[in-house]
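Cont'd.
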Amino acid sequence: MQEKSFKSRREQAAATKQKIYASAEQLFLRHGFDAVNIDDIVKHAGVAKGSFYVHFESKNLLIATMINHYVWKTDDEYRAYWESLPPDLPVRDAVLALAGKIADVITASIGCKNMGILYQTQLGESNRTHAMIDYNRALYQLFCDIIGKGLSTHEFRSPLSAYEIARHFVTAYRGLTFEWCVRDPDFDLKEQALRHFEILLHGLDAYGSPHST
Amino acid sequence: MQEKSFKSRREQAAATKQKIYASAEQLFLRHGFDAVNIDDIVKHAGVAKGSFYVHFESKNLLIATMINHYVWKTDDEYRAYWESLPPDLPVRDAVLALAGKIADVITASIGCKNMGILYQTQLGESNRTHAMIDYNRALYQLFCDIIGKGLSTHEFRSPLSAYEIARHFVTAYRGLTFEWCVRDPDFDLKEQALRHFEILLHGLDAYGSPHST
Amino acid sequence: MQEKSFKSRREQAAATKQKIYASAEQLFLRHGFDAVNIDDIVKHAGVAKGSFYVHFESKNLLIATMINHYVWKTDDEYRAYWESLPPDLPVRDAVLALAGKIADVITASIGCKNMGILYQTQLGESNRTHAMIDYNRALYQLFCDIIGKGLSTHEFRSPLSAYEIARHFVTAYRGLTFEWCVRDPDFDLKEQALRHFEILLHGLDAYGSPHST
Amino acid sequence: MQEKSFKSRREQAAATKQKIYASAEQLFLRHGFDAVNIDDIVKHAGVAKGSFYVHFESKNLLIATMINHYVWKTDDEYRAYWESLPPDLPVRDAVLALAGKIADVITASIGCKNMGILYQTQLGESNRTHAMIDYNRALYQLFCDIIGKGLSTHEFRSPLSAYEIARHFVTAYRGLTFEWCVRDPDFDLKEQALRHFEILLHGLDAYGSPHST
DNA sequence: CATGAATGAGCCTTCATTCAT
DNA sequence: TATGAATGAAGGCTCATTCAT
């Protein structure tokens, strides 16, 4: 009780900012960036219009910030997951596990609609875009690291560089995610990702073997 | 007696419609749907604003129509290309050839920016989206046909259905195209598509072999 | 009767533009540029807000245009007046007559408030200003011409160039006008202008004489 | 006992007020009244927004106060200067000296931009204007005193009253200052003021002489 | 069919001022 | 006194669409 006075002014302000942010997030997810205006956001947050501009420079900057949060969050999650895997796990299994994890994260903590907005944004040329030019750059790096480790221990053989293989993986995941965004709910991201990556891993094995081509 | 002026009037009208359509197309490609307004279009076409609404119900409907044209056009091109291939071409080679052809079409006759707009539109939720909800459906069908033929002649073996394999192909192409849109010009679509499909085909081979899994 | 159909669409449009312009003019004069907004203008004109932007690019551009009209109008009036004076009128009398005429024009067809806005604008640095950098440039030229004629016929003697003398006249008129804007109605522009110019003319005579300094 | 902390608190408050005032002054001079907002001022002063309203009732009142300071300051400076002149200096020379002094003050301690803002304000109608409705009233008085002294000693003759002559001087200075504000740096205020006043003084001499008119 | 003036809802942003802490 | 979060009215401008000629 007396929750009110428990909050310092600073905390109160942070709470307001959070209310606005959360409202914006919800509404953006529900209706897309362009269909939501500042009035909607502040009304939903229960604050005055001016308050929005106390906490955020502009609508576009809020969007950019929000997108960055998503990107960072997922990147961190992926890497943490990989580092939690047993070090002696075969590279092949690690890649499959990561593919599954990515699907889990995208499905559960981002969601289809939101992911669609993320991808739309990345395809766009607006000022928003420049805030997130490199969504997936960290994923590239992560795949590089995993494959590089496999190549260096000779557990994994391929005429391709770790970077090239990582590119195939990222490209594949782009396609999987896109297809999911567009076909949901008729496309189970995790299931498809695992199948697709299995084929890809087979392909890379075969590609590296002498009898190929 | 009046036929001539009737016809010329009809022709005139068609010409006006075409002028507007072509202007809209050019401008949309250059700047995106949202950055182009009716004023821009009619000014570029050299006609009056009212003429736009004589020939098109609304901006959104024009966009939908235009997208459909694109979809049909490319679909036809792909199928015509396949039908032009020698009937005895191995399925594997046909798939690779088609992958290359698709890259050619997308690169040359659609372009990176435009493709991005198409993909953005597909990811969106607006009324525009419904116009192209089935972009690539024909491609699915085409891959299905190719693979189905291979499976039925036993030239190609796989525990997967033709439909499933087609889905892997389409998904892969989605990723390739997306990556190209985002990374251009540092990502050569055709080269990457051929490499990626080669791996995928290897993977499918291996996947189908008894020693796999 | 049937006044309506007498007007072609073009005339109708011109009438609307004029209504907006006239409303803006009135309101600006009454309340100043900054105290009047687009809503006020269109409401006063009895048209929709969008109509304003059909006829004028922006509020600032309208203001600039309006100011230019004033400037041109007065310049033309001054020169026409001078050309209407008898060619054999002594320069001294011509200058005095012009000084009086200027006062008449400013007083009657511009008005005190308006003149104040003009001067304010000229002192400002806003985008409006650049539209009228040279209010009074034509007046400079006119004085130059009058004095130059007097100097060339030796009717008028001075060690100063026509340009320098013109500058003294223009400067003096600036002061008279400014004082009028600020002191009105306690400062009779015409009376003061005539007195001041008489002194100035005497001063120039004396200045040119050998016994001066 | 408490005197010290009382005083330091008072001093602190005064210091804060002064910081705000100085910041506002600087920014107003640099960018004009309307282009500077309270946020700019307090940020520049390094205090909180609320502090502004602790020390000043409103933005407009601060502006009014500031203008008054300017007016008083310059008026005092002019009078002090005159009083510092040798009492037996001829009126004519005193007037010229004062004209030069005014130019010095305006040029050095007010500046062109600032003077423009002052003049703009004076031409305006806002509540600000009332704060400086009497800018130059003291200058009137000063000129009156100087000329009155000359007239009373018969060192100076004129059919005009001291007040009327003062008005011509003030009016002339208005014009000079305005022209400077608008033409700077192509118009050297001091040089032009001295020349213009010389002509004016000649004119007044001649005007007073029997052979004039 | 063609024209282009007219419409008016919609949107982002600014800013002086208030007030609880 | 000092703080700074909160307020909400105000304002300039865009744009798809309509409709009389």
